[in-house]
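Troubleshooting: if your tokenizer reports a length mismatch, compare against these two reference records.
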Amino acid sequence: MVLLSATDRRCRIYNPAENYRVIFESDNYDDAQFWLLEDEYELLEGRLNASELI
């Protein structure tokens, strides 16, 4: 999963296994991060620009 903050300040979680389909969207980073951690996804360090995905 990839968590990105867009220029509209909404946070979206993309699934690379599904051609980077948005699987979760939130008004803030904390809610999106909690959604990932709740499902036991592992945090990776690094940065990626949303324009590289779509």
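Reference record two:
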Amino acid sequence: MDNKKRLLALTLCSMTSVVLAGEKEELILLRNTTINLVDELVKQGVLSEKVANDMLTRAKAEADAETKQTAQQVSKDENDKPDPGEVRVPYVPEFVKDEIRQQVRHELREEVVGDVMQKAKSEKWGIPDALPDWVNRFKLSGDLRLRSQNDFMADDNVKGFYSNFQAINNVGGVTAAGLDGFLNTTDDRHRFRQRLRLGIDAKVTDNLKAGIRLATSNIPDPVSTNQSLGNMGGHYDFNVDRAYLKYDAVNDEGFK
């Protein structure tokens, strides 16, 4: 353990020596560069030798004064260390205090307003008992869809090949249906279509839910609720699209 401590101390000392040596080399380089520059200016006739000597003398005096002042400040700081248990608080200018106070106040205001708005929304402030409890058990929904639909038929399709059983059953036979007894397989068709749905879901109890949805309907079409626009003189079909009862024997935690 002692060997490790000694090795660590030697490492730190060597690092400190390297740092000090590097700083000393930079100072020596800076000093030599300055002196060489002044000498070159004297040789070029830009400065007289007297002026150059005065510059170097003043620079040396100022450097000695700064070095002495730094040493005195370091000694003062070492002698002015706080006593054990003493806490020193640095002086903060008044304008800095005002700036910090304004910044903290602004951040707190935004956070408090956000929390209050969220709580007001969740607890429905401003409308206490405005609506009965059963109203909150219902949820309305709906949608409207409009689209353009093109049906393109191949040129080699055979006409009157596929029977339209829905049309045949409606009129009571193939003869009565005539040409309507066959599906269109040769004529292209372009239609604008729409679909409207309205639904309501209710929470009857904590375990029982019910719902019903009405939708535009196309009774002759067993797979679509779309209605074609432009049926002059006719009415849209509006039928029950969905109805359900849902009973949950257990809740989300798995208990009855």
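Descriptive notes for reference record two:
- The beta strands are 138-151, 189-203, 208-217, 227-228, 237-247.
- DSSP finds five helices and five strands in the chain.
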